[in-house]
Design a protein that fits this description.
The complex is a heterodimer of chains A (about 325) and B (about 100). Chain A is built from eleven helices and no strands. Chain A has about 325 residues and is mainly alpha-helical. In chain A, helix 2 (about 55-75) packs antiparallel against helix 3 and helix 6 (about 155-175) packs antiparallel against helix 10. A three-stranded antiparallel beta sheet of chain B has the order 2-1-3, covered by helices on one side. Chain B is elongated, with a radius of gyration of 21 Å. Classes of the chains: A mainly alpha (about 325), B alpha+beta (about 100).
């Protein structure tokens, strides 16, 4: 990749960054307050495309995984200042930022694999390709599952959504570490530790709410009822996912069904709740992977994209 | 049904940095129980790669010296310079010092 997205996010050499060696905030490595030794997950990774995978299909596959993370990240960011407690506010924002980081790497990989998938911007625009993908595509071009875009809901819904999506994503990322695309494998390896924590965080709250008060249990049950119809889509393979999986670079969603239901059974068991069955009949599925989205998606994108679209040549 | 407390108890947080030898007090937070306090501490106090180990303790479990006793507690040691080893001049012949 010509543009390394992590250099901007982390870069110890980035001038003006609080992690700058000359900054007042750091300098003494033994000081506890700010960490050091940040790692670039793509350092030393071969970025050439693997053999046997169609670059355009690999790009689309990366968009699917990247859009799941991006859209869920945007939904979770909405909790900023709205969470039940300051500590939960920070926790949810951390999770949103983890996912934003995954999205950035995945969209950058999509752009590198197939530059044709990046929206056209004025030649003078300094917007990097992964930002062009995030901020200048319309909803029909987004490939995320509906569970990521569903309206924010209450804290019970936030926790339930995160239990479902992180259990599923962790299973996918775990297998993607063996991807024939070394970049995808490295992104997955970085993501596994992050999503493991997300799942742990959400599962603890799930059990706490289920075994808390009558009100918390009632709210959790209603969250499950609202979100469960969006679960079948997670295990419905799109043609692109099937082909990229066959080529050794991806994971077919149906392959993680047993692993995910096993995890969910444990969580529901601990919560003293019965896990609803997953309706795998084709008509039960949403079609987010085809770019078919709900009204909530349009509103989410409007809020997320408005500033970038107003200033396509802006420098931040 | 269990009694619902309006406010979660306060915890004090100690973090050991990568190269730090001891846990250092970094702040406090609220949590419903010990396990949640460790997770909150991870989320609030180690998000910038600060730590490799966390201790939490309920604030009400800490016994502290009182500010009212400051003078009798600490002032007497203020002029006892001879309690520092550097106060003493060592003869050149003393080994291993």
């Amino acid at each position: 990749m010509s543009h390394d997205p992590l250099a901007d996010v982390i870069g110890p050499d980035d001038p003006g960054s609080p992690y700058d060696a000359d900054s007042l905030l750091i300098g003494d490595d033994a000081h506890w307050a700010f960490g050091t030794d940040f790692e670039d997950p793509l350092a030393g990774v071969d970025t050439t495309l693997p053999d046997g995978v169609d670059p355009a299909e690999l790009a689309e596959y990366c968009l699917m995984l990247g859009d799941d993370a991006l859209v869920l990240s945007q939904r979770l960011s909405e909790w900023c200042s709205r969470a039940p407690d300051l500590e939960e506010d920070v926790a949810l924002a951390n999770i949103a930022l983890d996912l934003l980081g995954q999205a950035r790497l995945l969209l950058a990989r999509a752009a590198a694999a197939d530059p044709g998938c990046v929206p056209d911007l004025p030649p003078s625009s300094p917007v990097p390709p992964e930002d062009a993908l995030a901020f200048f595509r319309d909803d029909r071009e987004f490939r995320n599952v509906h569970l990521a875009e569903a309206p924010r809901g209450d804290f019970g819904e936030a926790v339930t959504r995160l239990v479902l999506l992180s259990s599923w994503r962790l299973a996918l990322l775990g297998r993607l570490r063996e991807s024939s695309d070394p970049v995808l494998a490295a992104i997955a390896a970085k993501g596994v530790a992050e999503v493991t924590y997300h799942r742990d965080y959400a599962a603890r709250w799930f059990v706490t709410l289920a075994r808390g008060t009558d009100e918390s249990r009632r709210r959790l049950a209603s969250a499950i009822a609202v979100l469960w119809p969006l679960v079948p889509e997670l295990f419905a393979a799109h043609d692109i996912e099937v082909r990229v999986a066959e080529a050794g670079a991806g994971v077919e969603p149906a392959a993680v069904l047993d692993e995910v239901t096993g995890v969910l059974d444990q969580v529901f068991d601990a919560a003293g709740l019965e896990r609803p069955a997953i309706d795998l009949r084709p008509h039960a599925r949403q079609r987010g992977r085809d770019g078919v989205h709900t009204e909530a998606m349009g509103l989410l994108l409007a809020e997320m994209q408005v500033v970038a679209r107003a200033h396509p040549t802006g420098v931040w | 049904m269990t009694v619902v407390e309006a406010e979660w108890p306060l915890y004090e947080v100690f973090v050991r940095g990568k190269r730090g030898l001891n846990h250092v007090h970094v702040g406090s937070l609220h949590a419903a129980d010990d396990a949640m306090a460790v997770r909150h501490a991870r989320d609030v106090y180690t998000r910038r790669n600060e730590g490799v180990s966390i201790w939490v303790v309920r604030a009400d479990a800490i016994t502290a010296s009182s500010p009212d006793e400051k003078d009798p507690m600490f002032a007497p040691s203020g002029d006892k310079v001879y309690r520092h080893p550097t106060f003493y001049t060592l003869p050149d012949g003393v080994p291993h010092m």
